[in-house]
């Protein structure tokens, strides 16, 4: 293919932009449609950086291939072994990782559905009483998703219960949630190489927005890429939206490279007065993130910050890791890991609005994706 770059235009560019949007790297309406403008170039650079490609802001063969692979997430399509044209994509990687995690030899998690992946999948299907056809479809996906790391060890009753719980489809229709990516515009926040905290939390916010939206919630972001609202503007926005929940996202950095981990903050004076719902959500969100990413748990803390004080709904700030810590930084720069954090936040929101008796253990609750299951 002819490489695309600044100045290119046409359907191929629009296609690249659609891929970038679906990855949450380009906000809708930000780019000139079909025009390879500055916003498109920045999004491509961002993508290349997080995927470990050489960063030139242009879409050649390699970047194009990576973009089309990244568009697939597990559940988007049936996966099987096609010896003529092997299926490739992030969904294949997801399947391979899941099988490996469950102890099946699915080959290397390379995103290519080969013979070994098929063998691993068939073995899994046999063990779990599914049709051993080597095709990953809705029932296999459901089984894979239900087998959380915490629900192993032969407790079929529990497995069945949590399966029917997910099938009953707890949803967030009618809930209004404001997601607040910190910084923005002229304020980059902390930086990690070419990437800024402002960009990373915006990417994370878009992923959370997508997941909450898929679960039926009405979601608003407090800013786009080029804005940096004041705390007052952010809280007024949430109050005007009559939000049920306000989630502010940040990442940290510290002079000591040893500082790492995830912390959450809710409104409270530390001497009794606090938002109980805020405290509960701060706890849920942090624990879900910690359980799914393995990052250090730095606890939840009451604060009287303006952002938490002026909001008239439960408000929580989540600081998801240290850009100054080598391991945290590597995790946060990985788009897939940010997807995991977004899923953790979704699970926390689901749990917040669920009756306590239906509440599944931390780290195990996975919402079916749109059209992906059954
Ligand atoms: Zn920040």
Automatic annotation (TrEMBL):
GO function term, MF aspect, one: N-acetylmuramoyl-L-alanine amidase activity
Pfam families, alphabetized: Amidase_3, PG_binding_1
Stretches assigned to the MurNAc-LAA domain: 235-350
Name by which UniProt lists this protein: N-acetylmuramoyl-L-alanine amidase
InterPro entries linked: MurNAc-LAA_cat (IPR002508), N-acetylmuramoyl_amidase_3 (IPR050695), Peptidoglycan-bd-like (IPR002477), PGBD-like_sf (IPR036365), PGBDSf (IPR036366)
Lineage of source species: Bacteria, Bacillati, Actinomycetota, Actinomycetes, Geodermatophilales
Species the sequence originates in: Geodermatophilus obscurus
PANTHER family according to UniProt: N-ACETYLMURAMOYL-L-ALANINE AMIDASE (PTHR30404), N-ACETYLMURAMOYL-L-ALANINE AMIDASE AMIC (PTHR30404:SF0)
GO cellular component: outer membrane-bounded periplasmic space
